Amino acid sequence: MKTTYPYGAWSGYLGHLILALCLGVIPLSPQKAQAQEPILAPIIDSILPIDLKEVIVISSFNRGIEHKSQPKPLSTLDQYLESSKKVSMVKRGAYAWDPMLNDMTSERLSITIDGMRIFGACTDKMDPITSYVDVSNLSDIHVESGQQGARHGNVIGGALDMRLEKSNFRPLGWTGAVETGYESNNTAQIVGGELNFSNEHFYVDTDLIYRKAENYTAGGGEEVAFSQFEKYNLSTNAGYKVSENQKLLANFIFDEARDVGYPALPMDVSLARAFIGSLSWVQDSFIGDLENWETKLYANTITHIMDDSQRPDVPIRMDMPGWSDTYGFYTQTELILDDHHLIGKLDGYYNRSLAEMTMYPNDPNEQDMFMLTWPDVRTLNSGIYLEDKISLKESSVKLSTRLALQTFNVADDFGLNSLRIFYPDMAQRQTRVLKSVSAHYHRQFKALHLSGGLAYGDRAPSVSEGFGFYLFNSFDNHDYIGNPDLKNEKALEANFKMAWPIKNLDIAVEGNYFHTWDYIIGEVHPELDVMTIGADGVKVYTNLEYANLYNVSLDMVYQLTSELDWSGLVSYHRGTDQNGRNLPFISPLAYRSRLTYGQGNFSGTLTLSGALDQSDFNPDFGEDRTPAYALLSLSFGKTFSIGGDALYGKVGIENIFDRYYSTYSDWNNIPRMGRNFFMTLSYAIN
Amino acid sequence: MKNIKSIFALLALSLGIASCSNGTDDPLPVADNPLEEFNLTGSFEANGHALEIYSEQEGFTMGYNELFIRIKDLSTEDYVSDATIHWNPVMHMTDKAHSCPRSEISTTGEDTVYKGFIVFQMASNDDEYWELNLEYSFGGTTYTTTEQITVNAPSNGKRTVNVFTGTDDVKYVLAMMPLTPEVTVNDLSAVLFKMETMMNFPAVVDYTVAIDPRMPSMGNHSSPNNEDLLFDADTGIYSGKLSLTMTGYWKINLKLLNDQGDILKGEDVTEENEGSSLFFEIEF
Q1: Region A365-393: what's the mean pLDDT?
Q2: How many CA atoms does the CB half-sphere of B258 hold within 13 Å?
Q3: Which residues of chain A lie closer than 8 angstroms to B246, CB-CB?
Q4: Which of A267, A312, A412, B233 has the highest CB neighbour count under 10 A?
Q5: What residues 14-33 of chain A have any CB closer than 8 A to a CB of chain B?
Q6: Which first-to-last residue range defines the signal peptide (chain B) (predicted)?
């Protein structure tokens, strides 16, 4: 399948590649990346030893051909994320997958675009933030596990920060590129282009991408109805150097998806639209010895229209529009004092989440049935983050802390009165104090890197968890009611990592453990009557006494020859509550093995990926045993030079043997795509 | 400084005048007609008086009607205070005549306005009609008048009154009091009478009206935290709590229980039984 590591381009011959394929588990490591792609090395080098951070590279830093390091360059952002080590995706169809980090989804994560907080407008998580950007406008995604992500917000599971691609005052003049792609399985057509101008004082980048896909076909030939989608994304970045020391940056993203099918759900989306904008002021030096001062103001607005007008047979017609507007800022600066590297950040956001549900009775003379599923919840969060990286002899320590104040205000009286049916004494406003502290230690013994950390953090309930009103979850077939009296969820986290390069073999072992008190989850309330026709019951969000989650992974890279690499990854996850009951959406043992061959301007990858039987599942949460599967995918790429320009072509096959399968994170066991041929062509004008 | 003070004084004065004039202007028309916000549902001329009946509704309507009465002396154009009024509505059916449950008529805060309620258990039709008999006294004289009135079926067709025979072989009239339903926990009230004779409908005390609101168009789902209607001796009405989780059509399934807890009428709603034979309906 796909991987997102900075392999760079490899060269060689196909024969070698096929011969060298075996079942193994080999990953890549920072040292490898450093050797292969020097441009990326500084990032990797400065980040990996200390943070448990993963960087998913989307477009390489050298301009020209974009997304070249990807086995499938114009795949959706979702596929890029899925191919990473730490992120897995909950899938409800072919579009808008919901990212999970350490087996936790959006309410326990911070998902940001260039540090901007954005919140989806769908009560059913059909529009994760990752669906409002595309590979065309991103350079990379920084994945930070647990409290390492506290810089971006109050998190339990970690943070995903999607960094926008910027020319950044490099003296490149005019550059442009055209990309096109096609996939056979769902006749997906992708057209993208970019036009940039950059010099030392000014730059402006524009990117455009359009995708249209029909229904896909599962392994064995079964068409998955309502899996189509269409989307386009336009983004512009501009920067102006006010002085050598001062920069003014602006960015704007418009993203719109229409006619998006969700085969695993009873409803589709007729429109998902986002306007995202920001203005930044960056100064190399600030007051006194403070440096790298950056201040950003941002705003975004999302409209999400869920409907069932395309579904032939529903018990009742309904519309479920939702809106989410966020306004925020952050300002941060750094201070380097001897062995200390300090970062201070102030941030805040104000979010408004509103969602409605209108049901149309079969008798046209009857009044419409209307409810507010998100009662116009206004969330105000303001926080301060401090970090100190201390360099010691052959080791380093990173200490960080975050303190934030979060208030909720249920602004709509209709919605407040609705919730007061369940909570008669519910206050309209509530305030919570959120905290995070973390300590991380890294030590190098010659080539061996050892690191470990301890952290504590908490989070407030999400809008759905605190204030949702009859949100139907088709996975466990229950209506969910929010609970404004929920306690904050608190997690104590321990993590370790060992990276050990032995000649041509790099091994990394990594693990983390979360002991989470007051873990928020929906529990059945048998006395409550369902609202949704056909639902099995009503769940109310509740604090569990505690839950335990742990994740371990083994990651290896072996350089067979200078042209041929073999990488592999095995990961194991487990999550239980205080009674030993399995938590939902915990991955079974999963593995990936890949051979990458590169010589000159030719490259090829062969990937084997799969998972074992999901033996630890929980029927109470709608899960069943997901059987084991294994998939094989293959891709080839070649770069041609035409004058000064470059043409890059890539072809590949995914799921070569057309296996019918679904994974533990496929909503309602929706089958995944069967055999798929893809082809992309990129042309870069320099 | 002095100037500023005087400006403030002027401002305060003008504001005071503005608010005073508002304060005195507004009540005047109200004093003119304290029932302006209500509909004049009937005006009968008799004995040199005009008897005006006001209601929140457009006209007399099947079910619970809260009515306000004023007596105007046509010779002086003044409204009469300190009157005592009795009423007796009678339905003239093709084969028989009967009355309906109603309250005594009492005075209100406004001394020319009297009020009470009538529960019309059926609407007028082409062959059957209602008569309202009024007996009123003031200044030592008693007057009577009888007027034919029209009782309309509810415009939305929703049931707010039930006439039924309980398992105790008693005929009851159960009427829902007016409700402006909202998506919240609503205060729901009802009045309960038994039909002792064709003309006599005494109030029934200390029974229980159990409620189970349902949405038949949406899988017949219910709502949480409802409270059955219990008798309140102070007000003489049955009151409880009705939770409505969304707008639309709600059927409030009822069971009538006597003071022993025996079910006199109504059935539980189950998978097999979609609704009770005793119910109210609302739509909003």
Answers
A1: 95
A2: 12
A3: 357, 359, 369-371, 531
A4: A267
A5: none
A6: 1-23
Pick the last residue of a domain from B152, B187, B206.
Answer: B152
Lowest mean pLDDT among A16-30, A189-203, B4-18: A16-30
Quick one: B167 and B276 in the same domain? yes
B134 shares its domain with B190:
no
pLDDT of residue B273: 93
Q: How far is CA A171 from CA A40, A206, A575, A614, B120, in A?
A: 19, 17, 51, 52, 88
CATH number, domain of B273, equals 2.60.40
Residue A61, pLDDT above cutoff 80:
no
Confidence of residue A432 (pLDDT cuts 50, 70, 90): very high
Is A367–B185 a contact, with Cβ atoms under 8 angstroms apart? no
Interface contacts A/B by beta carbons within 8 Å: 83
Statement to judge: residues B143 and B167 lie in one domain: no
Compute φ and ψ for A113, nearest 5 degrees: -115, 115
Give yes or no for B218 touching A (CB within 8 A): yes
Under an 8 A CB cutoff, do B183 and A417 touch? yes
Closest approach of B187 to chain A, Cα-based (Å): 12
Same domain, B100 and B167: no
Are A549 and A569 in contact by the 8 Å Cβ rule? The answer is: no
CA A128 to chain B, closest CA, distance in angstroms equals 28
Q: What is the 3-state secondary structure (H, E, C) of B94-125?
A: CCCEECCCECCCEECCCCCCEEEEEEECCCCC
Same domain for B144 and B213, yes or no, is: no
Interchain contact, A363 vs B247, CB within 8 Å: no
User: Is residue B2, in this structure, part of any structural domain at all?
Assistant: no
Contacts of A368 in chain B (CB under 8 A): 247-248
User: What does the pLDDT read at residue A52?
Assistant: 59
Give the distance from residue A366's alpha carbon to the nearest chain B alpha carbon, in angstroms. 7
List, as ranges, residues 303-332 from A with C-beta within 8 Å of B: 315-316
Q: What are A188-231's pLDDT values in tens digits?
A: 999 999 999 999 999 999 999 999 999 999 999 999 999 999 99
For residue B6, being part of any structural domain is answered with no
**Containing domain of residue B177, as a range?**
161-283
- Which of A134-138, A605-609, B27-31 has the weakest average pLDDT? B27-31
SS3 of chain B: helix, strand, coil, percent, to 5: 10, 45, 40
| Structure ipTM over 0.95, yes or no | no
Q: Is residue B199 part of a domain?
A: yes
Look at residue B281 and tell me whether its pLDDT is greater than 60. yes
Last residue of a domain, one of B122, B152, B182: B152
Q: The domain spanning residue B78 has which CATH number? A: 2.60.40.10
Q: Which amino acid, A504?
A: N
Mark whether B147 and B169 lie in a shared domain.
Answer: no
With beta carbons under 8 A apart, name residues in chain A contacting B220: none
Record the pTM: 0.86
- Asked if A363 is an interface residue toward chain B (Cβ–Cβ < 8 A), one would say yes
Q: How many domains does chain B have?
A: 2
CB atoms within 10 A of CB A196: 21
Nearest to A367 among B219, B244, B249 (CB): B249
Residues B195 and B264 in one domain: yes
- Residue B94's contacts (CB-CB under 8 Å, 6 or more residues apart) are B127, B128
Using a CB-CB distance cutoff of 8 angstroms, which residues of chain B are in contact with residue A472?
none
Whether residue B171 lies inside any domain: the answer is: yes
Question: Chain A within 8 Å of B156 (Cβ-Cβ)?
Answer: no
